[in-house]
Design goal:
single chain, 431 residues, alpha+beta, Butyryl-Coa Dehydrogenase, subunit A, domain 1, Butyryl-CoA Dehydrogenase, subunit A, domain 2, 4 domains, 3-stranded mixed beta sheet, binds flavin-adenine dinucleotide, acyl-CoA dehydrogenase activity, AcylCoA_DH/ox_N, oxidoreductase, flavoprotein, Acyl-CoA_dehydrogenase
């Protein structure tokens, strides 16, 4: 057993830990630990990676350090989408891990996806978001689509290095997804789609989008109302080249600038009814369920960024360039290290749970929130440790700090994660 596993056991023994929001007795805690240990031997999850996982990690690490990192600052300055590097990542088997083998994917789990995301995020978190957008865009289809739809659109991602996107956010519907106004009205065997989406990652690069639209507008004011989101919103696959789809300009964001973020407008777009994912009214659940699978990888990307902050800080100190005293340096360095290790444990736990068929909403939100906050603290601390140099674009930590901020916003803001965490806790406590 590894040292970390022993530490974890010790903690579990001495504390009443919270598992899926419910307080367990010590006996139950140990029982759940035993289950985890058994699963570890059968699923490969542990604090040691399997040989295959290690190989994947090494592959991701060498690709990140050799192919992404040297170009990251240049691409960031130009706001250039790293298409050719992404294509190479696809060829090297570093994308689409979550897609089952029968659709040409790697058929791997969220744990593996997170391992890769940590390594890629170390080199450039914007690049990693461009990779992860394919998961976010395709997971609703994977969860709720019929065989024909999955075969058609998932295979598109695995046969060639192509992209998809998750188009949910609108100008007046961000955190409040229920406020969506894009409409899909059924006419014969088609839906007619009208509306606008905003802040859509990979919108200009994707071949198809997962679009969340309102299919039931039967309430008094005609927009379907907010309360019935889990019944009135539906998910569709919409191809970018279809008539009526207009993609906006690439947004120039504060950080993660290589990622392609755009608005998309739908003007009388005709969607074949067969491109509805699942049933009408299931879209909201699909869009939210996707996050259980994708939030661990967002946390992993943030952790990769934080590890880079730590490494750059250590290098700066060892190069004799840091002018702070030993006490100040040890504070910065040790805070970064503790934050990274804590976030990593929760991140892998949340990934392992979903891979093992356990509901992980609570842990996925903790992982995402914790890693986002931690990455921002690490980046800000690294800039401080570098002194004035930290603010200068000739030094790597300036980009890291700009890149970190977005982790607190997309895939549910940190405040929204806190709402989910407390809701899960309170709901479980009520039962
Ligand atoms: C770079 C980038 C990429 C993105 N990619 C995608 C994508 O691929 N697909 C997609 O659909 N969307 C995407 N988004 C949109 C993103 O998910 C939203 O920005 C996010 O959900 C927040 O929505 P909002 O910006 O409208 O902020 P708002 O929801 O208006 O929130 C504003 C502030 O209020 C806080 N707040 C809101 N509600 C509450 C509440 N109930 N309690 C407490 N505080 C609250 C928020 O935390 C935030 O700080 C992306 C955004 C960015 C910046």
């Amino acid at each position: 057993m590894s040292l970390s596993m022993r530490t974890w056991m010790c903690l579990s023994k001495n504390l009443r830990v919270c598992y899926s929001g419910r307080h367990f007795s010590q006996r139950q805690v140990l029982e759940s630990r035993r289950t985890h240990t058994e699963s570890y031997t059968t699923t490969g999850y542990s604090f040691d990676f399997t040989k295959e996982q290690q190989k994947l990690k090494e592959n991701a690490k060498s690709f990140a350090r050799e192919e992404i990192l040297p170009l990251a600052a240049k691409y960031d300055r130009a706001g250039r989408y790293p298409r050719e590097i992404l294509d190479e990542a696809w060829h090297r088997g570093l994308t689409n891990h979550h897609i089952p083998k029968k659709y040409g994917g790697a058929g791997l789990g969220t744990v593996e996806e997170c391992m890769v995301a940590v390594e890629l995020g170390y080199a450039c978190s914007g690049f990693t978001v461009a990779v992860e957008a394919n998961s976010l865009g395709s997971v609703p289809l994977l969860i709720g689509g019929d065989e024909q739809l999955k075969k058609k659109y998932l295979t598109m991602l695995t046969e060639e290095p192509t992209r998809c996107a998750y188009a949910v956010t609108e100008p007046s519907a961000g955190s409040d997804v229920a406020a969506i106004r894009t409409r899909a009205v059924k006419k014969g065997d088609e839906y007619i789609l009208n509306g606008s989406k905003m802040w859509i990652t990979s919108a200009g690069e994707a071949d198809w989008y997962f679009v969340l639209a309102r299919t039931d507008c039967s309430d008094v004011n005609g927009d379907g109302g907010k309360l019935a989101a889990n019944k009135t919103l539906s998910g569709f696959i919409v191809e970018r080249e279809w008539p009526g789809v207009t993609v906006g300009r690439k947004e120039l964001n504060m950080g993660q600038r290589v990622s392609d973020t755009r608005g998309v407008t739908f003007d009388d777009v005709r969607i074949p009814a067969s491109n509805l994912i699942g049933q009408e009214g299931q879209g909201f659940k699909l869009a939210m369920a996707a996050f259980d699978q994708t939030r661990p990888a967002v946390a992993a990307n943030a952790i990769g960024l934080a590890e880079r902050c730590l490494d750059e800080s250590v290098k700066y100190v060892l190069d004799g360039r840091c002018e702070l005293n030993e006490h100040a340096i040890s504070n910065y360095i040790s805070n970064m290290a503790t934050g990274i290790e804590g976030s990593k444990a929760v991140m892998y736990r949340s990934a392992w749970m979903i891979d093992n068929g356990q509901r992980n909403t609570y842990y996925a939100s903790i992982a995402k929130c914790m890693a986002a906050e931690m990455a921002n603290k690490c980046a800000a601390d690294a800039v401080e440790l570098f002194g004035l140099n930290g603010l200068n674009a000739d030094y790597p930590v300036e980009k890291l700090m700009r890149d970190a901020k977005i982790f607190q916003i997309y895939e549910g803001t940190s405040q929204i994660q806190r709402i989910i965490i407390s809701r899960e806790l309170l709901n479980n406590a009520r039962q």
